[in-house]
Amino acid sequence: MADTVADVHQHEAHGHGDHHHDQSWLEKYVFSTDHKIIGMQYMFTGMFMAVIGGYMAYVFRMQLAFPGISVPGFGQVSPGEYNALITNHGTIMIFWVAMPVLIAAFGNFLIPLMIGADDMVFPRINRLSFQIFFLSSIVLLVSLFVEGGGFGGAWTSYPPLSANGDYNQTQLGASLWLIAVALEFVAFLLGGINFITTLMNSRAPGMKAYDIPLVCWMIVIASILFMLSVGPLLAGAVMLLFDQTLGTGFYDPARGGDPILWQHLFWFFGHPEVYVVLLPAIGITVEVMATFARKKIFGYKMVLYTAVATGVLSFFVWAHHQFIAGIDPRMANVFTITTLLISVPIAEMLFVMIATLYGGSIRLTTPMLWALAFMAEFLIGGVTGIFLGASGADIYFHDTYFVLAHFHYTFFPIAIIGSFCAFTYWFPKMFGKMMNDTLGKIHFWGTVIPFNFIFIPLFVLGMGGQHRRIYNFQHFPQIAGPEYFQLREIATIALLVMLAFQLVFFYNIIMSWMRGEKAGKNPWKANTLEWTTESPAPHGNWPVDELPTVYRGPYEYGHPDREEDYWPQNLPG
Amino acid sequence: MLELVQASTYAASIDNLILFIGIIVGVWFLLAEGLFFWLIWKFRAKPGEKSQYLVGNEKHVKRWITIPHALVLVCDVFIVVGAVRVWYNVKQQLPEPDSVIRVTGQQWAWTFQHPGADNELDTSDDIFTVNDLHVEVEKTYHFKLESRDVLHSFSVPVFRLKQDAIPGRSITGWFEPTLTGEYDVQCAEICGIGHGVMAARIHIEDANTHAAWISSASAATTP
Ligand code: HEM
Ligand SMILES: [Cu+2]
Ligand SMILES: [Cu+2]
User: Is the CB of A288 under 6 A from ligand 1?
Assistant: First the structure.
């Protein structure tokens, strides 16, 4: 931390000479060690990748609804291209959108500001983390254009298909894809070290464990889950890379290897990964709901403990992805039990959040709409997961569009609704301007309504027996009828509508950023520390002698002893 | 909305399990969403009214969490029992077979090895077909599922049956068709660029038709 104070002085020293100006712009925005700038870098990289992931969804949804057409902006979709599109759509949305935006962008931006620190503990590691992440994004994008095309073996990358160029026919694309994912993991390991250490060491005087805003806890718990689960997969990824490039046989049964090993390593990481992105989104929703319901969280500790319980349990459920993959059928019973058990803490967490509304004074601002939509939609994702955790039912549903619709009902609320929620709520702090609320609401309804029209038809198709990762359903007479195609068309048209409404969002950011009303320090009358400094916060977050001290928890809204309905954490008395 | 054929002895049990879970989670879902929207409406901001200050550890308030908590657990037990019973029947036990077939996945076709007239697999009169599986209705089959290259998955939606095929292993499963007709077999595990065309058909025939198919197919393959 002494580090960052020194940085402040350096900037002052450099800032004067005009010939240094170019360099200091680079220093300030490109090679910055300021956690807020790094957060923005993650955010805008993530947004850019989301646009690419969305474009891919547009291309393959067009192909599915209108097989064989020349998709405007892409052209005809070949089977190999189709596979590459869905693989990289899934990979991008999870590793290059959900993770960077929810964990890295908001973790970086929020943790120091919300705990009253001037920066992360290791600002240079933080910068390195983003640089590696940026490199990984480039590697991934390059992999789409190399000879043979992008990798098309699904985001789960099961060997032997992924391990052998003879099978996947994208030798180079597959290796670059794997390297990109491994680099991304390294970036998040570095970032995670920072989040955990900073939360432990840099809290404002007076901030005890239960005074920490829940979103900070959630991001840190998520980072811990990530660290504990990713190790085996990184080792597995190296073995897969060796199989691909050196011709080893770790996953090749002909040479004593075992393809199922990869599935265990992948899902031992992959299931906790779901909670790695879920918890920050829950944390964001909690902050926003408390602020706009003007309510203390109903059971702060309960949210925290259920998050930890969910995290721990999430290490014991991975094989529910492998019920029918050839594991010992008796194991399915064990994993059915653990999987259903996880519904207990998750349900409890959601109950606590719903109960928070009781007795509130609810204002439906744009961020609040996003928070409420997260709850309403995520519930659908949650309850449909029960079908898949129940081994007997999963025999039918596994790898159908029912699964697909289920996990989009979890991931879309997490990655898209959760990010919009956070973005609209903290925009004033990030840019010092208010966002236009009317445009915000138009964008909200224009996203959430079409979202349901995309994925409810896909549930129905899944129940009808339609499988995933198939580029043209005309080859299967039972699911090629007009009633099936109608459902596919509804989903695709809803997607087009949803994508069109995203223009409102980008227009709103630009207009609000240029001409928006000045935000002031605390436009939402919220309690947490980030609202006690200027908007946007200066380098170092607070003037050195004004770093805040904490006197109470983050959710003291509607306190009977006070005239005002909020009570900032830093006010004495 | 979409017509769903049940063509195996266990298809109905899987559908009933799905329905059973659907009712349980459906009730929870409606209650939770109902309560949620009611609270949003009931506690909307009204001018001059301040929000209430509730700490959440009052006993009568806590009940709202502890009771649902217990109820969720009870529902979970019922669902686990239902799921495991179905699972046991479909995947864990093997009834005595009337016939054994071999199903082999490869990039990008299904090869089916039928036992032929002697009803013994791996004898000289076995009938091999590509992408057409012939079985007799109301007979219990074991299938031996194998793969020549990458993972595939043998999925027969009308049976509600699905099983991954793994190179280097032979996985045995079973089914008993209950309806005659011709239905889709899909590959349910991505297996390369031809995954989307790895479509086969299953022909479920009555005893006479099946016997006739065996003799015509044997005649076609024997020199
Ligand atoms: C923008 C709206 C979205 C649409 C319309 C959409 C649509 C789809 C569709 C139709 C597939 C299946 C393709 C196939 O199996 O043939 C798919 C796959 C997938 N999507 Fe999305 N998606 C969207 C957003 C997201 C988001 C936000 C995430 C995650 C954060 C996500 C994660 C995935 C994953 C992991 C897969 C699986 C890829 C694979 O099979 O390897 N999607 N998406
Ligand atoms: Cu899982
Ligand atoms: Cu396949």
Answer: no
